[in-house]
Design a protein that fits this description.
With about 400 residues, this protein is an alpha+beta fold.
């Protein structure tokens, strides 16, 4: 735009249009080209706009419709959505904008071919995924697109009211004039770790107890109405149950009755979870952590008990061994053959540990034979052979 002494020159490009105003009043639209405007008083103003696939402020359109309705109809497409309706605006066959109820919009149509597609939402808020994909609004604020997995259950809320239970699959909804929300619940068992917390026992001993539990949703509607964070609610409930079970018992009772504590905590929790829409399965104490000085004392007690038990077992074994020796001695006393066999057994064990044996029979004896005869003869009047390897064979033993 160039301003001279008595005139004004304006050049409008092909993708532009310009509004000419004189003394603040709309005069006309300047199409593409060069325009020479008489303006001796410098009262003219020119405002240029891009017109390819673009919108125009709605408040300016209302003013233009009142002062120049023909110009408004020629250059602009005004889109007004009815209640419970959405209007898609297509520029040359491609969706660029959408209009919601109570949000009219205006678009330049002098260069771009504008089409509209209206969709009524009076019957249902469910959206056809094909329509959503075709208009490219899957991520737009007007669309709620959610995926329910095989192990999940979904609940549909419209304006805060539970409307429908959703199964596995893809679910798409329009959310224009209503607030649409989907809450999903995992129906699989969920682990819950209750971390260590300080609890005083009945005999005033401070303990730290950790517990593991498994819970799952069985009634999604009750679960949705009970709490936003079910895991935190169950966590607090288990904490109360542990305190109830521990403060009424002494340390010895707790250490010796973990199974009964598990059952008591489980009964406390399961009695209150049905109204929450959940069920608690496995539940049990994981660790009972004692203070350092108490743990040291208990270790000494356990060590003393083990030493006493070991001494008792040792004495019992010694008594049993002594009784066995006494029985063996009585048998040998009444049975010389058994005594002789015992001697041979002892000799055999002794010989096993000897690497070499040298025998000296002496003069007049026949070598190894006398020794063997003295070992295996078991007559009633026999006597043990002499230790002297050179002794003569007893003639009465023949």
């Amino acid at each position: 735009m160039e301003r001279y002494l008595l005139a004004l020159t304006v050049v409008v490009k092909d993708d532009e249009r310009a509004f000419l105003t004189r003394d603040g009043r709309f005069e006309r639209v300047l199409d593409p080209g060069a325009h020479h405007i008489w303006d001796a008083r410098h009262a003219c103003m020119v405002e240029t706009f891009k017109v390819v696939a673009t919108s125009f402020p709605m408040d300016r359109i209302r003013v233009l419709q009142s002062v120049a309705p023909e110009v408004a109809r020629r250059y602009f497409e005004v889109v007004i959505a009815e209640p419970e309706e959405i209007v898609f605006v297509l520029f040359d066959g491609e969706t660029k904008f959408y209009a919601a109820p109570r949000n009219p919009a205006a678009y330049w149509k002098c260069v771009t071919r504008i089409e509209t597609e209206r969709l009524s939402l009076k019957e249902t808020l469910r959206a056809d995924p094909a329509v959503v994909e075709r208009h490219g609004v899957a991520r737009a604020p007007i669309v709620l697109d959610t995926q329910i997995e095989q192990h999940e259950t979904g609940l549909l809320f419209i304006d805060g009211v539970l409307t429908e239970k959703l199964g596995p699959g893809r679910h798409t909804f329009w959310q224009l004039t209503r607030k649409v929300a989907v809450r999903k619940f995992d129906m699989r068992p969920q682990p819950l770790e209750v971390t260590a917390q300080e609890i005083l026992t009945k005999d005033r001993v401070g303990l730290r107890i950790t517990l593991t539990a498994f819970w799952r949703v069985v009634d999604p509607q009750k679960a949705a109405a009970s709490a936003d964070d079910l895991a935190n609610l169950i966590y607090r409930l288990v904490q109360f149950a542990i305190r109830e079970a521990v403060v009424t018992r002494t340390l010895d009772e707790i250490l010796g009755a973990r199974d009964s504590i598990d059952a008591e905590v489980r009964a406390y929790v399961t009695a209150r979870t049905p109204e929450l829409g959940v069920a608690v399965g496995e539940l049990g104490l994981k660790d009972v952590i004692l203070p350092g000085e108490v743990r040291a004392l208990l270790n000494k007690v356990v060590e003393a008990e083990r030493v006493a038990k070991a001494n008792l077992i040792r004495r019992q074994e010694e008594t049993a061994a002594t009784r066995s020796l006494l029985n063996t001695a009585r048998l040998m006393e009444n049975n010389p053959i058994l005594l002789r066999l015992k001697e041979l057994e002892s000799l055999e064990k002794l010989v096993e540990k000897v690497g070499r044996i040298d025998l000296h029979a002496g003069p007049g004896l026949s070598g190894f034979a006398p020794l063997l005869k003295g070992l295996y003869r078991l007559e009633e009047d026999d006597r043990p052979a002499s230790s002297d390897s050179g002794a003569a064979e007893d003639p009465s033993a023949k």
